[in-house]
């Protein structure tokens, strides 16, 4: 049995719920559904269960633009974010639009019928086909089934437990145990201070340092605004304040990397005092070549200062039955090893994308305005920023998609297809970003062009002008 919708959205996380709201709000006559492969909504915030899981940016920018964040904490824990997503979906009736345990296996554009044929696996076994006029993928870009874990085989000699944070579960007991956390990214700096509360000791073993900045868990100005202004006004002002602060931090980092490096290291040294070791906080790259890590209320530095946690900058030589030995000759013993070694990118949730049954090689595509793919009709993605809150860009993408849908409706168009001109533009990597998970996925990631509208700017103000208020017509966007 075939079921047809005007729009099918993939993913019921932050971006998927946001997309559903905008389509319901701005394209009121359009039918839509949300396909979610898991048994519950929430995406990342339902999947990750490791201790201390929290946002790595403030909730005034990570939260929905249309549903103000009310909690006093700007840096929120995972369960609070999940609750917020569910409450938002229920508030606007979007929870009724979700089809759970519906995993998209493949999507094929039928040029003759001008529709997408979506092959779905329901409940793990049943196969069905849905069709839609417009396909909107909001499933994020990493593999939900497993993280990047290059140490799995090498660590098998260790007699304790080895766990990747993505597989964390409630049966893991780390109370009064020695724990090694391998990694230095956002997950590691979140885990270490939380594990230190119960563990006898926690060692963060990092191959190379990361830039780490403190951020107050509560935003004093935002809370003042919420006490004295209507919720929507306070939320908008707090949101824009944090957007501008984030943009300024990024621009200053790129323009004066040496000064920003010194500023960040000096702040850490102030916190750690005689426990500060320069080699642990002096990355080999400039600020924002990779994403900065934020810690709320200096929790990581407090854990190190207290002696419950320590940072070791070294590489692994070999694992032993009791822990591991570094190439620098340090013997680290442990009862539990946490491999916070990163994520694996899985574009479009792993689905196969094709046009008239010809499989599309995503690495040959170009991204139009960070929203659509070249030569792929009636298709959009919601992918966030690398230098700011994920939801900011997703929200703008949703605005742009609804504007395109309404433009098509008004003028009687059935298809909208970006066309890349390789004579007018050169090709560049999609992300100007040195993170490991990006480098490992260069063979599947689409590209960007050398200038507008094929350039991905990672700049909220530029994108707001282009996606929310700019034209939905140009010579590279073909309507028919």
Mean pLDDT: 93
CATH homologous superfamily of the largest domain, by name?
Answer: FAD/NAD(P)-binding domain
Globally, the shape reads globular
How many angstroms does the end-to-end distance come to?
29 Å
Strand content: 15-25%
CATH topology of the largest domain: FAD/NAD(P)-binding domain
Assign a percent range to the helix content: 25-40%
**How many beta-strand elements?**
25
Residue stretches low in confidence (pLDDT < 50, at least 5 long) are none
Radius of gyration, taken over Cα atoms and rounded to an integer in Å: 23 Å
Q: Helical stretch count?
A: 12
Please give the CATH architecture of the largest domain.
Answer: 3-Layer(bba) Sandwich
CATH class of the largest domain: Alpha Beta
Overall structural class, as computed from helix and strand content, comes to alpha/beta
* Domains (count): 2
Biggest sheet: strands, sense, closure? 9 strands, mixed
Question: If you had to describe this structure to a student in words, what would you say it looks like?
Answer:
- The chain has 480 residues and is α/β, with parallel strands linked by helices.
- The protein has two domains: 3-144 and 344-479, FAD/NAD(P)-binding domain; 154-339, 3-Layer(bba) Sandwich (FAD/NAD(P)-binding domain), CATH 3.50.50.60.
- It is built from twelve helices and 25 strands.
- It has helices at 14-26, 44-47, 59-62, 78-91, 186-195, 220-228, 231-255, 257-272, 299-306, 390-411, 436-439, 460-468, and strands at residues 3-10, 32-36, 98-100, 102-110, 115-122, 126-137, 161-163, 178-182, 201-206, 212-215, 293-296, 309-313, 316-320, 323-326, 331-333, 336-339, 352-355, 358-359, 367-368, 372-373, 379-381, 416-418, 427-429, 447-449, 477-479.
- The strands form seven sheets. Strands 1, 2, 3, 4, 5, 6, 17, 18 and 21 form a nine-stranded mixed beta sheet that branches. Strands 7-16-8-9-12 form a five-stranded parallel beta sheet.
- β19 (367-368) and β20 form a beta hairpin.
């Amino acid at each position: 049995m075939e079921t047809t919708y005007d729009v099918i959205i993939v993913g019921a996380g932050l971006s998927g719920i946001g997309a559903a709201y905008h389509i319901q709000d701005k394209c009121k006559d359009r039918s839509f559904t949300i396909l979610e492969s898991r048994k519950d909504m929430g995406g990342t915030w339902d999947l990750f269960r490791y201790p201390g899981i929290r946002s790595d940016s403030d909730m005034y920018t990570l939260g929905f633009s249309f549903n103000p964040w009310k909690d006093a904490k700007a840096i929120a824990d995972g369960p609070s974010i999940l609750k917020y997503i569910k409450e938002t979906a229920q508030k606007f009736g979007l929870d009724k639009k979700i089809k759970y345990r519906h995993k998209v296996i493949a999507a094929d554009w039928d040029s003759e019928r001008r529709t997408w044929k979506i092959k779905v696996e329901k409940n793990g076994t049943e196969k069905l086909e849905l069709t839609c006029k417009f396909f909107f993928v909001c499933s994020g870009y990493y593999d939900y089934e497993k993280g990047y874990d290059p140490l799995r085989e090498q660590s098998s000699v260790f007699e304790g437990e080895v766990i990747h944070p993505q597989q964390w579960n409630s049966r893991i007991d780390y109370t009064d145990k020695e724990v090694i956390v391998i990694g230095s990214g956002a997950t590691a700096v979140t885990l270490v201070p939380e594990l230190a509360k119960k563990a006898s000791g926690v060692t963060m073993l990092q191959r190379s340092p990361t830039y780490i900045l403190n951020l107050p868990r509560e935003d004093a100005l935002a809370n003042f605004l919420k006490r004295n202004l209507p919720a929507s006004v306070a939320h908008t002002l707090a949101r824009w304040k944090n957007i501008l602060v984030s943009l300024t931090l990024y621009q200053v980092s790129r323009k004066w990397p040496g000064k920003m490096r010194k500023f960040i290291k000096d702040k850490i040294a102030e916190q750690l005092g005689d426990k500060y070791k320069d080699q642990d906080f002096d990355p080999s790259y400039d600020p924002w070549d990779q994403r900065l890590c934020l810690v709320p209320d200096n929790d990581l530095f407090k854990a190190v200062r207290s002696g419950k946690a320590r940072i070791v900058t070294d590489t692994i030589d070999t694992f032993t039955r009791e822990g591991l030995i570094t190439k620098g000759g340090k013997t680290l013993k442990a009862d539990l090893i946490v491999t916070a070694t990163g994520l694996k990118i899985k574009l479009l949730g792993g689905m196969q994308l094709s046009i008239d049954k010809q499989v599309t090689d995503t690495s040959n595509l170009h991204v139009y305005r960070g929203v659509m793919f070249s030569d792929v009709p009636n298709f959009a993605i919601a992918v966030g920023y690398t230098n700011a809150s994920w939801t900011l860009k997703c929200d703008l993408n949703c605005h742009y998609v609804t504007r395109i849908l309404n433009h098509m409706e008004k003028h009687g168009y059935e298809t909208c297809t970006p066309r890349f001109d390789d004579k007018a533009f050169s090709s560049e990597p999609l992300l100007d970003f040195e993170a490991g998970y990006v480098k490992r996925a260069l063979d599947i990631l689409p590209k960007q062009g050398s200038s507008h509208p094929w350039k991905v700017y990672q700049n909220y103000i530029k994108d707001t002008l282009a996606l929310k208020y700019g034209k939905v017509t140009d010579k590279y966007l073909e309507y028919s």
